[in-house]
Amino acid sequence: MGNLVVIEGLDGAGKRTLTDGLTKALHDQGRTVTTLAFPRYGRSVHADLIHEGLHRRHGDLTDSVYGMGLLYALDRREAAPEIRAGLDTHDVVLLDRYVASNAAYGAARLRQHADGEFVRWVREIEIDRFGLPLPDAQILLRVPPAVAARRAEQRASTDAARAKDAFESDDDLQARCAAVYDELAAASWLSGWHVVDGAAGVDHAALVTRLVHPG
């Protein structure tokens, strides 16, 4: 059985870059790895509804924190067989966002903390009811919200397909989300967390050694 490793962080934190770096480091160590990013835009009807909602194409859908949270959860529920298959055939399944993203953003939108009702609801839905695999390790790629916002803006200006959505455009939400992520990591929510400074260089090989237990 492989290791399920999750990368979490704000929009613009550099999760895709870290995914690429860790994938190379794993291959350099002779390990097999498969990756998956959530939401699965273009692959899941639930993810596509999320994308459309974040760009205000479904009326007040985005205003419902629980409604959006359920769409995120359903996207992962649909992907659960793919995750389990990856764990059966690879040393590492590396995910760009997972259950904690739902917990952090929803709690931040409701101005709750990591010990609040929404985070409990996310665990009950995604883990207890939908039976999603628990991560073996989670990485919090921590950057100051202002840095993440600047990166997201730069990304949007160079890639029309990655225009900023309603969440990315809300600087106050991003700041509150960063605080909830810190609380989740401190509480070891769902698994142990490894906090990485996203504004500094990352030693990918050393991080892999911390994250992955021997097969």
Automatic annotation (TrEMBL):
It comes from the Bacteria. It catalyses: dTMP + ATP = dTDP + ADP. The keyword ATP-binding applies. It is an enzyme of class 2 (transferase). Residues 7-186 form the Thymidylate kinase-like domain. GO terms for cellular component: cytosol. Its EC number is 2.7.4.9. Keywords: ATP-binding, Kinase, Nucleotide biosynthesis, Nucleotide-binding, Transferase. GO terms for biological process: dTDP biosynthetic process; dTTP biosynthetic process; dUDP biosynthetic process. GO terms for molecular function: ATP binding; dTMP kinase activity. The keyword Nucleus does not apply. NCBIfam families: PRK07933.1. Phosphorylation of dTMP to form dTDP in both de novo and salvage pathways of dTTP synthesis. Belongs to the thymidylate kinase family. This is Thymidylate kinase. It comes from Amycolatopsis methanolica 239. The gene is tmk.
